[in-house]
Amino acid sequence: MALTDNPMTLVITGNNTISASLEAEIPTEETVLWRGGIDGAFTITIPAGVNVLKITTESSYINNFVDPRMPRYVGVTPGKTYNMGWAYVVEGAVPEPEYFEVWVQRRNSSSDYKTWVSSYAGDAPEGAGFAYVDIIMSYSASINQITPNVTDY
After folding, report:
1. How far apart are CA 140 and CA 29, in angstroms?
2. Are 24 and 85 in contact (CB under 8 A)?
3. What is the DSSP letter of 83?
4. Local confidence pLDDT in tens for the 153 residues of the chain
5. DSSP letters spanning 127-150
6. How far is CA 120 from CA 31, 35, 62, 113, 126, in A?
7. Residue 20 has what DSSP assignment?
8. Nearest of 54, 63, 48 to residue 30 by alpha carbon
C-alpha cells in the first residue's frame, strides 16, 4: 500500500509523540539477487525484509545429483552486505566418473567465513574443473517462510 492510499486527517492537541513504521514489501514472484559463478571475492546486499535466500544452480540435473540436494536455504540479515568468497560449480572430467560439486561461501577473512552450500556427489576425478553452470541466489515472500538449512545472521 502506498503512503497516499487511504489518506487521513489527524488532529493533534497537546504534547504527543507520533511514530510510524513501514513494512518492506517483498515480491511474491521469485526475484534473482545474484547469478553467476566465481572463484573470488564479490558482495551481495540483502534487500529490506528478506531473511531467507534460496540458492540453487541453473541445472536441475546437478541440483538433484548432488548431496545434499539443491536448493539450499540460507538465513540472512535484511539490509546487510555480505562479502562472498566464492560461488561455483565444479564438474568432473568426461567420460566417467561423473562428479559435481557446488560451493557457496561467505568470507571476510581466512578465519571469518561461513559455508552456505557444500553439496557434491560422485567420485572426484583428477582434472575436475569449473563448470559453466550458474549459481542462482533468489528471494520472495514464500522463500522467506522456509526454514533455512544454514543461518548467517
Report:
1. 6
2. no
3. E
4. 455 555 656 666 767 776 666 667 899 999 999 999 988 899 999 999 999 999 999 999 999 999 999 999 999 999 999 999 989 888 876 666 578 889 999 998 888 999 999 998 887 666 667 778 899 999 999 999 999 999 999
5. T-EE-S--EEEEE-TTGGGSPPSE
6. 26, 20, 9, 20, 15
7. -
8. 54
